[in-house]
Design goal:
This protein has seven helices and no strands. It is elongated, with a radius of gyration of 22 Å.
Length: 217
């Protein structure tokens, strides 16, 4: 949102509030389902599939997509995250020996943070690993000379860091930024689909590995 739509960090945080609200509601909802004995084998994969579906939906955003496009998938992701996390935390603690409940409960936070860092590293590597070659290919296809490719890199860098590229020819800036947006969206879409596939695969593996008895068993 910051790079493509030029949202400020505060606006990005504000726009993500529906995700947080949905997470709170999702935690209450999944808690009631756990109390009724719905199996972890159902709830955790269902939550992961909801997150994967929301990622796929957001992956098809365009440069002119309004914020309302993201509202429903953000809320779905918030609910899905709690459907996956809450039963997983309960299962994690329930399987530990009584004298290690505190230690294992604390270590669950570490594993959560490690998973977040790993996901961020993987998604960033995919996105920016695709962005450079995609932008280069689009510029070459548009007829850019080798000397102009270096200028294009400077234009994109200036736009990302300071929000403008006034030091360059306006017509060239317009063409380069159009190609950069298209390359970014293409790379972003592939990255989102890959991450959704990974999350869905994890959900399938969890469904396969967890026993089918109810959560209170």
């Amino acid at each position: 949102m910051e790079y493509l739509y030029r949202y400020s960090p505060f606006k990005v945080s504000f726009c993500l509030m529906p995700f947080s609200v949905a997470s709170i509601l999702g935690a209450a909802w999944v808690g009631s389902l756990l109390a009724r004995g719905v199996a972890n084998r159902i709830l955790i994969p269902l939550g992961l599939l909801a997150v994967a579906a929301s990622i796929v939906f957001m992956g098809f955003a365009s440069a002119s997509t309004p914020y309302l496009f993201f509202l429903a998938p953000l809320m779905l992701a918030g609910v899905g995250l709690m459907f996956a996390q809450t039963p997983a935390a309960r299962l994690f603690v329930s399987k530990s020996p009584p004298d290690l409940v505190g230690a294992l409960g604390s270590s669950r936070t570490f594993f959560g943070q490690f998973g977040f860092a790993l996901g961020l590293a993987l998604s960033s590597s995919i996105l920016y690993g695709l962005l450079g070659p995609t932008l280069h290919a689009r510029l070459v296809s548009a007829g850019a000379a080798p000397s102009e490719l270096a200028q294009a890199v400077g234009i994109v860098g200036s736009y990302i860091h300071v929000g403008s590229a006034k030091a360059f020819n306006p017509q060239v800036v317009y063409q380069v930024l159009n190609e950069a947006r298209a390359a970014y969206l293409s790379s972003y879409r592939i990255m989102m689909l890959i991450m959704a596939g990974v999350i869905a695969l994890i959900g399938g593996l969890i469904y396969w590995r967890l026993p089918s008895h109810k959560s209170n068993a």
